[in-house]
Amino acid sequence: MAENELPEITPSIADVTCPSGLSGRIRRLRIKDLDILSSTVKAKDGGNVDAFLASAWTGLVDHGPYQQPWVDFSNGVRWPQVLSGDRTWVLLALRIITCGPMFHFRITCRQTRCGHQYDSAVDLGRVGFHGMSPEAAASLACGQNVHYRVLPLSQRRVGFRLLTGEDDVRQARVLAENPENLVTAITLMRLEEIDGATSPSERRRFVTEMDVEDSEWLTAEWEAADVWVDQMIETTCPQCARTSSLVIPFDSDFFSRRSSRPRSISAR
Q1: Angstrom distance (rounded) from CA 233 to CA 247
Q2: Reading across the β-sheet that carries 102-108, which strands appear in turn?
Q3: Which residues is 85 bridged to in the sheet?
Q4: Which of 85, 123, 138, 256 suits a disulfide with 227, CB 3.0-4.6 Å?
Q5: What is the DSSP annotation of 8-66?
Q6: Among positive and negative, which fits the CA dihedral 41, 44, 48, 51?
Q7: What does the alpha-carbon distance between residue 116 and residue 182 come to, in Å, rounded to a whole number?
Q8: What does the alpha-carbon distance between residue 94 and residue 222 come to, in Å, rounded to a whole number?
């Protein structure tokens, strides 16, 4: 883009359809929206993203599988109770309508003895997603968010939930408090019920003693039922050919950077 050339203007209003089928209208972001997202006051209770989504969402078109209490038909969407994957999809749509689909970033290679810094980009309009299973959609439409399975090895019956915005906030706190027990913490977050385990100590013991094969099978069942968006970006260093992975950063800077201004982000 030339120095004095104006960026391409995207539509001011657009319709967005989430992987679950929830759809509505969103508008281009304004400074007040970025203030909400970067607010340290709202960050204390995890309300930044909820308020950010509510601010830029202008109307409900189709509630999809959501019924009460997920959608208040007299007052729109209750964002803390919307599934994580749908929330992520709307965040991507807000970035695209405001700044365009291309996200340019600068990355430093983490390969030993390389450390080369290079620019890369991803087309956010081509990010992959997974819609919820018909079984999960039917349950949600009935106001239920617990899905039961019998583990193949232990034969124990468990009930897992699809994570919502409220769960995202809880998960961030749990992971911050349990940095050395990430797998256990995430599994406990997902499991709503465990046959024969009622107390917190029994639940934790069940998860920590779970066979890896049961765990992998259960993860596959979660992923098949849930709504999720592929937030991982892979890029290859032109200097040493090392592939690095990074997560799309949903911060205020991500929603304000034009495509001609790459930002630096960290790789794994």
Answers
A1: 6
A2: 117-123, 102-108, 263-264
A3: none
A4: 85
A5: PPPPSEEEEE-TTS-EEEEE---HHHHHHHH-HHHHTTT-HHHHHHHHHEEEEEE-TT-
A6: negative
A7: 31
A8: 27
Sorted by where each begins, the domain ranges of the chain are: 13-127+235-264, 132-226
Is residue 147 within a helix (H) or strand (E), and if so which, with residue range?
strand 147-150
Count CB atoms within 10 A of the CB of residue 189: 17
CATH 3.30.2220 assigned to 132-226? yes
Helices (H) and strands (E) in the chain — how many of each? 9, 15
| Residue with the two structure tokens 């899905």 | 147
User: 71 and 81 in contact (C-beta within 8 Å)?
Assistant: no
pLDDT digits (tens, 9 = 90+) for 123-142: 999 999 999 999 999 999 88
Residues 6+ apart with CB under 8 A from 232: 245, 246, 247, 248
Closest CA relative to residue 78, chosen from 31, 135, 24:
24
SS3 (DSSP) at 245? strand
- Which of the four pLDDT bands, split at 50, 70 and 90, describes residue 204? very high
**4 confidence band (pLDDT: 50, 70, 90):** very low
Residue tagged 């709202």 (tokens): 42
Helix (H) or strand (E) holding 125: none
